[in-house]
Amino acid sequence: MGIRFTVLSSGSTGNATVVANESATVLIDAGLSARRIDELMKERDLSGEQIDAILVTHEHSDHIKGLGAVARKYNIPIYANEKTWEELDKSIGKIADENRVIMETGEALDFGTLRVESFGISHDAAEPVAYSFYDGDEKLSVATDLGYMSDKVKEAIADSDVLVLESNHDIEMLRMGKYPWNIKRRILSDVGHLSNEAAGEAMSELLTAKTKRTYLAHLSRDHNMMDLAKMTVRGTMEDRGCFFKDTEFKLCDTYYDRPTPWDKVGDS
User: Fold this and answer.
1) CATH code assigned at 202
2) Which of 34, 91, 166, 251 is the most exposed place for a label (fewest CB within 10 A)?
3) Residues 204, 241: contact at Cβ < 8 Å?
4) SS (H, E, C) 217-247
5) 225-258: string of b/e by CB count within 10 Å (b at 16+)?
6) How far apart are CA 89 and CA 122, in angstroms?
7) Which domain holds residue 23?
């Protein structure tokens, strides 16, 4: 079977992704209401009873809005590092002791044959992380809310078959947008969000013959558009000497209001 996944929702209004193989099904973040997460999972023939674990990237509301409710409803263990748990305890309500699991940054855990590795990222949260998943030779990495693409992050997600990678904003749209300057400055900072251009620069270094697809994720609804993100990422890659055919490597969409189709990491 290998690894398969669906991005249930991606963006500033809420984030949730399901990753599964033949032995485990995990949810990355629960940034929408429990009811909405149930609806999105149902669209992909999933239910909460099938989720073995919830992996938390960080404590911002668009990643944990429904976390407590989902975990309690389906009795699912939550995995997060200690500093993130200190913040979660302030906002998600009572969680049974047996469902409070500390997974420190850099730790690797096995859920049956699905291996999960966390790695630190730069964002204005207590101790934010992203995750890579392994099953045999297959590798999927899910990395959003990146202030910048550090060498350590590049190393962590290198040689992924498929990436879910932040492409949050168009820099000029953000600069000309309605947000107050302090918010713009935060987004543009090294603890903010990755721009389309920065995503393209990163992909120009990360693309190898092994890389099949990159899903552009966590797009701003006010300061980006999917077609613009894909055009900018591709253009930036080509400007840096990285050319490809769609049959060899593909940039894929994510959505804030509907899940992506199931994708098998091993498919070409």
Assistant:
1) 3.60.15.10
2) 91
3) yes
4) ECCCCCCCCHHHHHHHHHHHHHHCCCCCCCC
5) eeebbbebbbebbeeeebeeeeeebebbebebee
6) 22
7) 4-264
Closest CA to 67 of 86, 44, 42, 95: 95
Tally of domains in the chain: 1
> Can you give the pTM of this predicted structure?
0.96
Reading the block at residue 72, the tokens are 């309690």
Per-residue pLDDT of the chain (268 residues; tens, 9 = 90+): 799 999 999 999 999 999 999 999 999 999 999 999 999 999 999 999 999 999 999 999 999 999 999 999 999 999 999 999 999 999 999 999 999 999 999 999 999 999 999 999 999 999 999 999 999 999 999 999 999 999 999 999 999 999 999 999 999 999 999 899 999 999 999 999 999 999 999 999 999 999 999 999 999 999 999 999 999 999 999 999 999 988 899 999 999 999 999 999 998 7
Q: How far apart are the first and last CA of the chain?
A: 14
- Strand, helix or coil at 157? helix
Q: In whole angstroms, how far apart are CA 127 and each of 13, 100, 105?
A: 21, 17, 8
Under DSSP, the state recorded for 112 is T
d(CA 222, CA 23): 39
CB neighbours of residue 98 within 10 Å: 8
Question: In the structure encoding, which two tokens stand for residue 184, read together?
Answer: 């713009």
